[in-house]
Design goal:
7 helices; 3 domains; 31% strand; alpha+beta; rod-shaped; 276 residues; Immunoglobulin-like; three-stranded antiparallel sheet
Length: 276
Amino acid sequence: MIIQCGKCSTKFRFDETKIEGEGAWVRCGRCRNVFFQENPGQDAGIAPGEKDDPEVPAWDAGQPPAEDPAEAAEQNYEDDIIAERPPKRAGKGLWTPGKITVYVGILVFVMAGVYLWLFPDIRSQLLNAASPWIPFSKQLGMEATTAEPPGGGIDLLDVRERFIENRIMGNIMVIQGMAVNKNKTTVSRIRVRAKLIDSAGEFVAEADTYCGNLLSDDELANLTEKEVRAELGSPDGRSIPNSGIGPEATIPFMAVFINPPRKAVEFIVELGSLER
């Protein structure tokens, strides 16, 4: 016959000839639960109270059967199991294929962020290529540097040149003027490029400078070349802030050529870049 444990629902085969009288107490070989199994060979129920207490099996109450049915049930338990509850699924570890894919994706994302942070020029190029998403990128704290062609929303006015003799470097050509923001938005870090041209129309020298960096004649006459480059090379402006320049606002610029080529006969100035 097949009997079933009422606690863990394990089913197993049991020799019904081992049950005498109206039934017997048996013990589940899996969960050790003790329960009363009626004798299928008799219709009469057991006397009241005999099976009310599963903690007192019949053989412990002075009515030992010829063979302990509970021990008989346990003896061949592994071979006689018909069905049991499905075992709990083992918890998955941290290195399943799906989780490994997620880990790799996170690592690539972090490395890409570090790379873009270390190389702002590459970051700017990517942001410019994805211009529809630039407003969102600004919310993340990343600014896009937009390289503009000559003009580019910036007018360069009152441009003039002059020469100063430096006691260390010799002759210095100074080109200065005013940059006017003609864009409808605020801009920052305006960079101007000055170029010298010979009689054949060829460029013979060029110099980049950020707006907002100015030197006095006394400084131009006494500073070294390294000091001059440092003073004029600050993107944020040393004399006047080169940031938050609103529409129609102006900011001065100054570019210098140390010992300019003698064959240079004219010059031009143009916008190098800006940040919106």
